[in-house]
Amino acid sequence: MSGSGEGSLSASFRRLIAATGPISLAHYMAEANARYYGSRDPFGTAGDFITAPEISQMFGELVGLWLADMWHRAGQPQPVHYVELGPGRGTLARDALRAMARAGLTPQVHLVEGSAALREIQRQAVPQAQWHHDLSTLPTDGPILLAANEFLDALPVRQLVKAPSGWRERMVAVDEEGAFVCVAGSAQMDPALPEDRREAEEGTLIETCPAASAVVQEVARRLAAQGGAALFIDYGHAHFRTGSTLQAVRAHRKVDPFADPGEADLTAHVDFATLAPLAQAHGAQWLGTTGQGPWLTALGIEARAAALTRAAPHLAGEIEAARHRLVAEEEMGDLFKVMGLAAQGWPQGAGF
Ligand code: SAH
Fold it and tell me: Does position 6 have pLDDT exceeding 80, yes or no?
């Protein structure tokens, strides 16, 4: 469906804003992504963007082996649950579960997915899975081995801007031409920021993601209560920074996030600097946050690429191109980070 018709999200946002005033950026992003993911399969060369598991099976296999290694060294507890947040096409789950099975681990499978369209595609890849709308219904009877690749970046961000009168939330309004524009909200937002971040020059913008914090808190709480380990993999920064990182991608190009809500993928950098201490505060062990490139290399992606090449010599060029794309510093290797968490008493993770 195109973005401008009566039933479009643009039209319903315009009606809502006309009736009740500007909406928060977080509200805008949440609804835009719910519409976007709910109505299509955005992945692959023919879609809007491509993710690490879609680049090569090596990615999911190494994630699976990392989780299996943790489970082995923790004494092979049973029952055990593989949990994936935002599984996309189910490719990572399929590859990780295959690698786990070879390592002697056959967990129950739980996929947290909001999109009905993507659940159908995931069902083809991982028929044995159970689906959940959010983390609240996940089982509590055993450790969880959790993976989330490019999940947190799709969750709605809040942006706060320093105005002369204090911190204001960035809101979305409609201008005279009917275009979506950002305006400063009228509510005083100082309490939404930690005290040590409130002093700032006028115009400073701070982005936070309350939804990502809530997810990491819940995972940390479950690790503490149930045991297990978790990997959050996403593009983002390991140190605090200011400025907007909101972006929209459609057909592999960056587009204006306000041009056609619901028709492009909206994401923001994940603030790993905030998430690691938050996980610790909720009882989890933080194993580290490192670049995807060094992490995959430490886990043996070169040996895996060599083995795949021996099995299919005619694909040597493709396998090497995929490995390079996943690990090279100027590709995904540095921008993408891997954050490892585990229950107290569980082993240190490989690669951190
Ligand atoms: N992990 C996959 C897909 C990443 S895209 C990959 O690497 O290819 C983001 C995924 O998160 C999609 O499956 C999307 O439908 C899901 N998602 C986004 N927001 C969500 C939410 N609030 N609740 C549940 N799933 C969500």
Answer: no
CB-ligand 1 contact for 36 (6 Å cutoff): no
> Domains in the chain, start-ordered, CATH in brackets?
38-155+208-342 (3.40.50.12710)
Indicate if the pLDDT at residue 176 is higher than 60: yes
pLDDT above 90 covers what percent of the chain?
Answer: 91
Question: Which two tokens mark 238?
Answer: 């390991």
**CA distance linking residue 36 with residue 298, whole number of Å:** 36
Report which protein residue has its CA nearest ligand 1's atom 20.
Answer: 114
Query: What's the CA-to-centroid distance between 115 and ligand 1, angstroms?
Result: 8
Between the alpha carbon of residue 16 and those of residues 22, 23, 35, 258, 266, the distances in Å are 8, 8, 16, 16, 20
Read off the pLDDT band of 1 (50, 70, 90): very low
Percent of all residues in the chain with a pLDDT value above 70, rounded to a whole number: 99
pLDDT at 310 over 90: yes
Ligand 1 atom with the smallest distance to the CA of 30 is 22
| 60 close to 92: Cβ distance less than 8 angstroms | yes
- The string of DSSP codes covering 245-282 is --EEEETTEEE-TTTSTTSSEEE--EEHHHHHHHHHHT
| DSSP assigned state of 195 | G
Q: What integer is the mean pLDDT of 103-111? A: 98
Instruction: Please tell me the distance from the alpha carbon of residue 150 to that of residue 58, in angstroms, as a whole number.
Output: 17
Is the model's pLDDT at 248 over the cut of 70? yes
Beta strand 81-85 pairing with 247-250: unpaired
**Residues facing residue 250 across a β-bridge:** 253
Q: From ligand 1's centre to the CA of 320, what distance in Å?
A: 27
